[in-house]
Amino acid sequence: xxxxxxxxxxxxxxxxxxxxxxxxxxxxxxxxxxxxxxxxxxxxxxxxxxxxxxxxxxxxxxxxxxxxxxxxxxxxxxxxxxxxxxxxxxxxxxxxxxxxxxxxxxxxxxxxxxxxxxxxxxxxxxxxxxxxxxxxxxxxxxxxxxxxxxxxxxxxxxxxxxx
Length: 163
Description:
Blueprint: E1 8-19, E2 22-26, H1 44-51, E3 57-61, E4 71-77, H2 78-105, H3 110-133, H4 135-140, E5 144-149, H5 159-162
Antiparallel strand pairs: 1-2, 1-4, 2-3, 4-5
Helix pairs in contact: 2-3
């Protein structure tokens, strides 16, 4: 396995079930970033304190022959994370600003500008939802299964045990 440090984000997840060449995996809900708790971190830990450490389910290609109950390491390119973040946050923000600008250009008052901004925001979220629901984006941004992780693996840290 070639080392891609700096280009990929990695996490260890548990296989819930397998179906042919795919596996349903569950994350621990804990942040896997090594920057947490540091001043240069992204603030995810603060958000998780407010919203909770919910685990999430994800369907991935089972390229390592994992079975139910196995722990596997998955990775995703940073560029794909940026693409998903832009789609999730930037597109609705641009819809908000663009809709407000169009409403303002109509010179019908602040109410129309506000309504335009809200319509743009909802349209941005709707398009993001639509884009995420298409199979093409899901396959383009899906994490890759790298390897099975054993409890004896010296590089493995069980994030659930630390919490």
